[in-house]
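Researcher: Structure prediction, please.
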Amino acid sequence: MTRHLPTRTTHRRAAGILAVGLLAGLGPAGPALAAGPGTPARAPAPASASPAASASPAPDDGLALTPPMGFNNWNSTQCRAEFDEEMVKGIADIFVDKGLKDAGYEYVNLDDCWALPARDADGKLVPDPARFPGGIKAVADYVHAKGLKLGIYTSAGTKTCNDAGFPGALGHEYSDARQFADWGVDYLKYDNCNNQGVDARQRYTTMRDALKAASATTGRPIVYSICEWGENRPWEWAADVGQLWRTTGDISDNWGSMLSIMKQNLPLARYAGPGHWNDPDMLEVGNGGMTDTEYRTHFSMWSVMAAPLLIGSDLRSASDETFETLGNEEVIAVDQDPLGKQGTVLSSEDGRWVVAKELADGSRAVALFNETGSPQRIATSAKAVGLPGADAYTLRDLWRHKSYNTAGTISATVPAHGTVLVRVSADGDWAENPPAVELALGGGTLLEAGRPAALTASVTDLGRTPAKHVSVSLTGPRGWTVRATSPTRANVLATGRVLRTGWRVTAPAGTPPGSYDLTLRAGYRSPAGERAGNVLPVRTTVVVAPPSGTSELGGLPWLSATNGWGPVERDTSNGEAAAGDGTPLTIGGTVYASGLGVHADSTVEFYTGGACRTVTAQVGVDDEEGADGSVVFEIWADGTKAATTGVLTNADAAQSLSADVSGARTIRLAVTDAGDGITSDHGDWANARLTC
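Model: Predicted structure follows.
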């Protein structure tokens, strides 16, 4: 089933797939999209499938030599009435007042719904007088007066993507381009709806030529953003057409969508460069669907990928944390580095990612990204990221804004869904900085209320110089008992040496199940006496052991759940949007009363506490209309795959799946899309049961 967003014929299709890599691509553009269920889309095919070594040369127009930065209203307002002239002017004011302009944000972009549904008698576009009473030129003049630029939106079809059917530019390219230039528009986002099956290269090249003609006449260059969702592999042909091209379907404000899009965009690094950028879609930072940690990961990874940074949240109501994230100039500098390299993946084993980006000054930006739901140690080395051999290196933490020295190891224990972003250089000033220390807290982060848990903290000197007068502390929520069971101090830690401290942590009896924060801190001094330290936040979970006997998994609390579209549903299929919008679980014509409805890629994790024996379920693709993808079901026990199916489609009857999970503290139910790229992968865990 194709997902539908309010008031817009959706093309947010491939973004819901938590693809491990790029997926199978489409050929030439398909038939026009219309409201109602549509043909499932495929995400981009693997870059390795192409014999091309790199993108075509970018046009020599001097546009977008670094990834565009700015704002687009769609993610926060869509077509609601609040999207109007005053809002757009207000965003421009905020850019100036909050320092975003100084940080590099430049474009204030209008998305769909700015026009009337019909052209005038001369075939010209007409701004909606209710939304933009002064017209688009007046808005452009206001934005320009602030030292900023204005962007606008239309589609490479007969109508735009909104259900109301605003005029698209197909067949009107030269007229529309000239109107945009006359209005003072500086940026065009050109969408892909209602394209009547016209070849994508033809549609997008025609608008390129129209924009060039308008620029030649008016003297106004317009940055050209190709938004055809990666369906026709634009990274292979669009570098001489536009300055940026979407590589995926639309993003949504949730972890699964952001993660999926990141994974699809990362393998395309060789196609990006000054004037031609891979675009994994707008930022969701601040829209409320992810945690602050996840939003920092979102911003970090988009910057390492040299992605356009287009703010998608309503800055009029943004939190201080949102402004702090969006305004981090050290992270922005990674994105805007003039060398124009997109970061490349060095490793991604078990959800522990290392992505490195070469910078113009010879340094490297290194992202240590933790995809998993628990803290993970992620490590690499200066040599592995491409730096020359040296006695030591300067390591700059771009979120903590502190510099350290390292003997060569680049390592951190990264919180769940978090990213540590550093800039590492082989300069001669490393000795001016204190040694880097790595913190870790082992022993598990699942606690039963009233039962002591044994944890072990470690403080490791990664620096070339020793850490002196080292101390470590662990704190928990009010009322918790946190007690050290071994020494918390060391006079000195030389390179590679570790201070280990045991801790006994007890959540009070009666503590409600849920997430709670522990904080591990280390303090120390450099050889010169400079104070330094490190902090590791650790999210713990108070859990309840499942009852004895056989329980329906649909009725048990889960530790975590990620889903391709919408939430995981209890006892119904996945409806792709809000909780409770599914239908009865149905596989091969058989209706099941209980279970879990998911959308690939999906994971649901449960606490079993070592007391359970088996998991059983009837699994398959739901009969729901449009659910025509391929899936694989997996059961994991403490990180080990305990059972799996082959590839299942909606032509298959339900298959029995069971696993021995004896002794496991956690189990995880996973559904992948089997690598086919089809997004309508609705998997049902029917009659899913746990025996303890």
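Model: Residues 1-56 have pLDDT under 50 and may be disordered.
Researcher: Thanks, that helps.
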